[in-house]
Amino acid sequence: MMNKSKLTAMSLVIALFLVSCAKNKVSIDKTTQKVSQLMAKMTLEEKIGQLNLRGTSSRVKGALPEALKQAVRDGKIGAFLNVMNKSFVAELQKIAVEESPNGIPLLFSRDVIHGFKTIFPIPLGLAASWDVEVAESSSRVAAIEASSYGVRWTFAPMLDIARDSRWGRIAESPGEDPFLAAQLAKAYVNGFQGDRLSDPTSLIACAKHFIGYGAAIGGRDYNTATINKELLQNIYMPPFKAAIDAGAQTVMTAFNEINGIPASGDKKLLTGILRKQLGFDGFVVSDWNSITEMIPHGFAANEKHAAEIAINAGLDMEMTSASYEKHLKELINEGKITIKQLDFLVANILRVKFRMNLFENPFVPEEHTGNLYAPKHLELAKKAAIKSTVLLKNNNNMLPLNKTRTVAIIGPLANKPREQLGTWSFDGDKNHTVTPVTAFTKENRSFHFVEGLNYSRDRSSKNFKKAIAVAEKSDVVLFFGGEEAILSGEAHSRADISLPGAQEQLIKALAKTGKPIVLIIMAGRPISLSNIIHEVDAVIMAWHPGTMGGSALHDILYGDAEPGGRLPVTWVKTAGQLPLFYNHKNTGRPAKPSEFVHIDSIPIGAWQSSLGNTSHYLDAGYTPHFPFGYGLGYTKFAYSNLKMSSKKMTDKESLTVRVTVKNTGDRTGEDLVQLYVQDLVGSITRPVKELKGFQRVSLEPGAQTEVEFKISVEDLKYYNSDLTYGVEPGEFNIWVGPHSATGLKSSFRYE
Ligand code: NOJ
Q: 470: domain CATH number?
């Protein structure tokens, strides 16, 4: 007989399944029936074909290769990636539905990550907006545009928690915090998939990379991740759970191994956690060759072995490598894989194709143009760029600029239409990009422009003189620096995350003119500014802001818009501090100002002693340059009057937290009010702070408002070392403030 807890767990799984079906507006019975009726007619070869995601180069010119068309005709391919020619898409689909044995439609996929034609800020930038509407509308626009090319499956959202800015793919990530990442995950999935999966503008989403890819040692891409089971559940899992709860139809396995097992071959992960714990009922796709990469990982002896491991783990579709295609039949004949296992994988894929109504509507409707670069899309891209931009420093209210002043626009990213689009912007046409220089020209601003450096890594000082000359005849210098797009993203990790090339030298040379300098950074990661920040008066982080970046920055610089972003990652002083994140553990010897000993304060010839006896670096200290959640606006806010509905909480009621926020400056502005919680004592040690809520307020000068948060039992739960998810009685601290390193503090007890 089943015990009560098993029964409850099972009803929960069934309930979740029903909810997900209801959300996707499908009838379980009908879809299941359709899948089994179809599968009854399919040959073994055809079934194996459905598991095959074939890559083509987006640049294929001329005609489609005959062999490829024949493979589709024979039912040997289930999905394609990177077929970016509309007539090829139509031709392949026509062959699939009209000539293949059972007319099963193909699924076309693409990395539509932060826009298709209209490019939005990179995902780390979108995360800085802390704005779910912005995340949702950006992915909706991306879906509308991309689906007009026949793409119906995007490899996004990327949901890898990233705590190390050296890692190139931090650019694609939602940042370091699981709570924020989970909110964004839901928004992205809703945006990509839209209201109905069967809508011709719906792209099925892919929550990737499952899991722990962002925990690569030293930020070196593809590297090993060691993550204990509690950390995996508490930090890395929440955004995936949110995406799956929102109905994400696919999940991509990560390249990396976790605790010795490559993600693409990990049954506990793909079957235990993904299917059973999270109730995922879509299909799992490998990353590019990640199944056969289990050979160099030292986990599979050869291709056939790799296929066997991946199938046993529960990996449904193979991207680009062909281990299933080549060896699955043999594995079945040898009894290493059963037909039942194969049928499970195939059914997962077909179910999604039915949900998308691809059988009825396999082609792009003629009238679906995608409204590429429609004014509305560009407007949303501009809004997203404004909301993503983080003001880090603004000495003496240097910004907004006085409109009558003449500016010198200098720097390697001031007029680089391709670079400001960032990583994963294959389809964005740079001719549509508004750079800062084009925006200033269009708005008739009085400015001089000299790049000074041709590109971000340029080490030559040969144009410094010209740059200094324009600085001298201007009132203020706007230096657009940072990283070219290619310096972040996949396989583009850096050990030194300061401004590359001779940018620091040029800024120092410009500072000698005595003109105030605004440093505007376009980059895929936080940049270490320790060598340079004292030379400049203001710093703006624009990330790679996308198609409308120049226009957004123009409006921010002149105060027609306010920089709306707050950091979704801790910004370090130097790469040597990495990994550094706000929700760390306290340690037995937490660092504090009174104990800190700087390297220069150690007496020469000092005898060995345990300096300060706390967890810090002698040189870089223990605090970041800018904390998680940080960002300035153009006005000031004061927080007061923190009130809690009770000092005690039980599982029956939630707590209400209220705080008064007042605009004490002289212009209307927005602030992002953040709520953090600390569980003081746990059966495993708990982070010093965890984000549990945020709200944006907009106030006129002198106006104030009361911001209210609810803390529910759910907010206090975590996975302990038995992997029990729950809340433990005890003391909790809370903070409400403008970022993770400050705030009004109170506490309560959970009983
Ligand atoms: C490899 C990347 O890791 C993944 O994110 C991407 O979706 C695939 N390549 C397909 O391009």
A: 3.40.50.1700
pLDDT, one tens digit per residue, over 357-368 is: 999 999 999 999
Q: Are residues 409 and 542 in the same domain?
A: yes
pTM over 0.90: yes
Each residue of 254-284: pLDDT tens digit?
A: 999 999 999 999 999 999 999 999 999 999 9
Question: Which residues have CB under 8 Å from 450's CB, separation 6+?
Answer: 408, 409, 410, 463, 466, 467, 469, 470
Question: 3-class DSSP state for residue 111?
Answer: coil
Give the residue numbers spanning the domain of 125.
25-57+78-355
Task: Compute, in angstroms, the gap from residue 527 CA to the centroid of ligand 1.
Answer: 25
In a domain, 401, yes or no: yes
CA–CA distance, 58 with 63 (Å, rounded to integer): 13
CA-wise closest residue to 583 among 392, 745, 735, 744: 735
What value does the mean pLDDT take over residues 728-747?
98
Going by alpha carbons, the residue nearest to atom 4 of ligand 1 is: 287
CA of 287 relative to ligand 1 center, distance in Å: 6
User: Does 179 share its domain with 42?
Assistant: yes
pLDDT in tens, 285-341: 999 999 999 999 999 999 999 999 999 999 999 999 999 999 999 999 999 999 999
> Quick one: which atom of ligand 1 is closest to the CA of 209?
5
Q: Any idea which residues carry the catalytic annotation?
A: 287
pLDDT tens for residues 107-128? 999 999 999 999 999 999 999 9
Ligand 1 contact via 160 beta carbon (within 6 Å): no
CB-ligand 1 contact for 111 (6 Å cutoff): yes
Q: Name the closest-CA residue to atom 1, ligand 1.
A: 288
Q: Compute the chain's Rg from CA coordinates.
A: 27
Q: How far is CA 395 from the centre of its chain?
A: 31
Number of structural domains (the chain) is 3
Mutate to test the pocket of ligand 1, among 109, 223, 252 (most ligand atoms within 8 A of CB): 252
